[in-house]
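Section 5: illustrative case.
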């Protein structure tokens, strides 16, 4: 396999707290011998396990970067057992542009795994993290939110896995995050995801969906910071008690949970996040935008549960995910 040119500018295995970069050579019009400098903090404490913590896998999701920047700034190594490898801005070019996918190569990092050492910028980031950082970790946490086009009930997520012991570890960690909701997730588009790569390496993996709309709120930022601290206590990195105000367990059993827009147009939401949904209930109307006086298309719930995610912009395109219904576990 060709060599990946990414190099960390700080040691990954030294005690203490260090701030540096993953340096990725990137020759381009405005910098002939330039580099992408992806911020990296490594904190080494007393001997113990390793956690790999990432935010901004998608560049328009903000709760993870907030919680991880706060952790990198505030945590002292004396308080830590084990090692934390922190990438607050996993897809740094996308984060700087405020876009979901990288503006350099148009690649969605969370569909680029396992990546390619001689591929595009995003493919190189994926390859480096998958082959050099994930193997070091016992726990991997990847923060997501809805980005500019979706909004979610704040939730930590674990996936349905073939290995039931690994799934139990992941569920216990997601539960320890103590977000208002904890979801058992089956992906609709799992190929190339970081999640699948990390789980394939046998790691304990937690992901989140903490809000959306291309911003954070005071509530969602608090949930992210509290959940991260809870997870680090759960994994033995930090002393203290998990702060658990309670969570609602959710399932997404099948394709019927996902509701796509049947046409383009103006969205009239009829149900808000967290509200109860019954089968056949109208979730949204989509009004025509090219002429006045026409009838809307009505999107009906295919299953019962609660509204767990919704399309965020006021206008939709045909095929956009308009609503996701999750089923509370009784
Ligand atoms: Zn995301």
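Designed sequence:
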């Amino acid at each position: 396999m060709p060599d990946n040119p990414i190099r960390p500018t700080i040691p990954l295995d030294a005690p203490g707290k260090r701030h540096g970069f993953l340096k990725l050579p990137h020759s381009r019009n405005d910098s002939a011998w330039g580099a992408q400098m992806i911020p990296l903090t490594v904190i080494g404490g007393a001997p113990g396990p390793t956690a790999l913590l990432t935010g901004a896998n998608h560049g328009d999701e903000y709760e993870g970067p907030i919680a991880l920047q706060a952790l990198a700034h505030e945590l002292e190594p004396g308080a830590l057992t084990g090692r934390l490898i922190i990438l607050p801005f996993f897809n740094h070019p996308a984060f700087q542009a405020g876009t979901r996918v990288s503006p350099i190569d148009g690649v969605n990092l969370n569909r680029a795994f396992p990546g390619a050492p001689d591929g595009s910028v995003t493919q190189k980031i994926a390859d480096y993290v998958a082959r050099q950082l994930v193997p070091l970790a016992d726990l991997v946490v990847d923060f997501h939110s809805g980005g500019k086009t979706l909004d979610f009930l704040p939730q930590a997520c674990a996936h349905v896995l073939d290995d039931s012991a690994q799934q139990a570890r992941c569920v216990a960690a997601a539960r320890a995050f103590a977000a208002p909701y904890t979801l058992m997730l089956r992906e609709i588009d799992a190929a190339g995801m970081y999640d699948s790569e990390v789980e394939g390496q046998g790691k304990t993996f937690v992901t989140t969906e903490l809000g959306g709309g291309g911003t954070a709120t005071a509530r969602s930022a608090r949930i992210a910071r509290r959940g991260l601290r809870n997870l680090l206590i759960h994994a033995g990195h930090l002393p203290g008690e998990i702060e658990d105000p309670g969570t609602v367990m959710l399932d997404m059993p099948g394709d019927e949970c996902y509701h796509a827009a049947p046409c383009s147009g103006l969205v009239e939401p009829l149900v808000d996040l967290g509200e109860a949904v019954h089968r056949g209930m109208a979730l949204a109307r989509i009004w025509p935008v090219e002429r006045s006086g026409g009838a809307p298309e009505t999107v009906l719930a295919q299953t019962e549960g609660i509204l767990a995610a919704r399309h965020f912009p006021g206008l939709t395109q045909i095929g956009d995910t308009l609503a996701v219904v999750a089923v509370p576990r009784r």
